Amino acid sequence: MRLALLVSLLAAMPWIAGCAAFSSTPPRPNVILIITDDQGYGEVGAHGNPKIRTPNLDDLHAQSVRLTDFHVDPTCSPTRSALMSGRYSSRTGVWHTIIGRSLMSPDEWTIAEALGSAGYRTGMFGKWHLGENYPLRPQDQGFDEVVCHGGGGVGQGPDYWGNDYFDDTYWRDGVPEKFEGYCTDVWFREARRFIDENHDRPFFCYLSTNAPHGPFLVGEEWSQPYVEQGVHEQQAKFYGMIENIDANLGKLVAQLDELGIADNTILVFMTDNGSAAPGMIAKNKVAEDGWRGFDGGMRGRKGSEYDGGHRVPFFVRWPAGGIGGGRDEAVLSAHVDVLPTLAELCGVTEAAPNPLDGTSLAARLRDADVPLEERTLLVHSQRIKQPKKWRKCAVMTERWRLVNGVELYDIVADPKQQNDIASEHGSVVQQLRGEYDAWWESLQPVFAESVRIGIGHESELLTTLHAHDWQVIGNKGCPWHQNHVRRGLPLHGEWKVDVVEAGTYEFELRRWPAHVDESIEATKATLRVGREEQQQDLAAGATHATFRLELPAGPTTVRGILEGEKSRGPYFVYVRRVR
Questions:
Q1: CA–CA separation, 197 vs 269, rounded Å?
Q2: How far apart are CA 362 and CA 369, in angstroms?
Q3: Measured between alpha carbons, how far is 499 from 479 in angstroms, rounded to an integer?
Q4: How far from 397 is each of 86, 374, 408, 421, 514, CA to CA, in Å?
């Protein structure tokens, strides 16, 4: 009697209700989630690309359940925030990749926090791109171990100065450390170390490569074979970066076999948006024979509201859980479904504190005959300071795609989205516009807010504010890359911050990162924090300007101004609470 009662209680718990029929399934599988950067649906050999070589991905494809109508956002930070939270990216405060709009709210409950609540050891390796500072770092968002680069890519503003993909300095749990080897090799090597050290307990490994995102840097041994096939040099490097990922995947899969944990490990492979292959973007990056890459039969690429911008590979394999065997599932699905799906598969009993936009696909992954409710999914690409309604958006059902509110495509009959049939299906257009209106209305409260960087917290005694994360002033751009810093772009912005604890704060304004310690190239410096302003004249050759202010706890803004031959904001501001 007691046993029957226990079984009924377990079956009623969130996430597990659909698992009652699988009582023999190991209850606590390991989870490895691999996501690559800018690799499109067509950059997998098993998807029909005749040039690229991805034997290990092809093997995983053959062993997996493949979600063939799986969608993400058209660019990286939005995808990552939705993936981590199970909620639409804009709802988390993320709709761009820079200007303070790539910072995910610390109120979001991440996959790492969900699995951590069930006793999982969690590790993150590679690209985060959801915030560099407390309380936005991966170690603040549920990860026990972190090895990562800064910003949206190696060599961007918040990344360690001078990184170039080879023998770089990355951050281990917030502390800079020099690593040997190519960036992708480092991420996989650290992930394999984490797996080896934790294979006797449930673990979650989030392995997020910056490759094949540009700049297209990779050893010649990876790119030259494609050049010899007649692929343009830049696209050959792009393909070489993917082949290097594939080789690393092979090593990781072999390790799982050697450790005897492959069967009880959920292994997921996906990408963060459509292809950024140079041949598909620029005509001057096309091979002499006209090879422009392989689009996977879709229109659009990274950033696009058409399917080529946001429909990506999604492979999942879990032999012990009945998931695999090589099966396509054309069910409409998205990044927001990953958290609830993994939570159910892993027996997470803690309920999400925020309403999720995703749904668990666990039952369908196990059984192709399990029906799913019809649903509508939405994506958009804003990439501006404040979102605009109907900008670069897609409203999706299993049959229809409403693009930008006016174009309608039957995606089953017309997967390339060549024939706009909006005029023939006015009722469908109106229905999907209504879905979008309701979605937009639900997002509106977030648009007026800003996710803030915390200063003065004991876990980050020195906060480095990067121009990558400032909100632009006026309609000017943002110096988000180290090359912009080198060129000295005359741009201005301010940081939205939260003073965690009242006290005396020291602000150090710099044009270069502190360890470079070169001239600030200014004769006057101004610091504005909220309504308080201080100024000082600078001696010739000065490398920085230092200010001290008494600050109350709470939200405020930080802006610096450097005046000289050019007027610009300081690209780096170092903040310490001194008492």
A1: 22
A2: 12
A3: 25
A4: 19, 8, 11, 15, 51
Closest C-alpha to 39, from 296, 286, 292, 282: 296
Q: Which residues pair with 526 in a beta bridge?
A: 535, 561
Residue with tokens 């000082």: 536
pLDDT surpasses 60 at 240: yes
- 3-state DSSP call for residue 69? strand
Quick one: which of 310, 301, 341 has its CA closest to 114? 341
3-class DSSP assignment, residue 471: strand
DSSP, collapsed to helix, strand or coil, labels residue 574 as strand
Per residue, the 3-state secondary structure of 487-513, as one string, reads: HCCCCCEEEEEEECCCEEEEEEEECCC
The residues facing 533 across adjacent strands are 528
For 305-354, write each residue's pLDDT tens digit.
999 999 999 999 999 999 999 999 999 999 999 999 999 999 999 999 99
**How confident is the model at residue 26, as a pLDDT?**
53
Using alpha carbons only, what angle is made at residue 201 by residues 245 and 129, rounded to the nearest 5 degrees?
40
pTM of the model: 0.94
Specify whether the CB–CB gap between 404 and 392 falls below 8 A: yes
Q: Residues spanned by CATH 3.40.720.10 within the chain?
A: 28-366
Q: How many residues does the chain have?
A: 579
Q: Which of 126, 163, 168 is nearest to 143 (CA)?
A: 126
**534 residue type, one letter:** Q
CATH assignment, 28-366: 3.40.720.10
Report which secondary-structure segment, H or E, holds 253. Answer: helix 233-259
Contact 208, 35 (CB under 8 A): yes
**178/184 Cα distance (integer angstroms):** 15
- Give me the residue label for tokens 């604890």: 501
Whether 545 contacts 538, CB under 8 Å: yes
Given a contact cutoff of 8 angstroms between Cβ atoms, the answer to whether 558 and 572 are in contact is no
| Pair 63, 318: CB distance under 8 Å | no
Q: Model confidence over 178-203: pLDDT tens digits?
A: 999 999 999 999 999 999 999 999 99
Q: Does domain 453-577 have CATH number 1.20.58?
A: no
Are the CB atoms for 194 and 169 separated by under 8 Å?
no
Tens digits of residue pLDDT in 140-189: 999 999 999 999 999 999 999 999 999 999 999 999 999 999 999 999 99
Residue 482 predicted with pLDDT over 70: yes
**CATH 3.30.1120 domain position(s) in the chain:** 377-445
Spacing of C-alpha 318 from chain mean position: 24
- 377-445 topology per CATH: Arylsulfatase, C-terminal domain (3.30.1120)
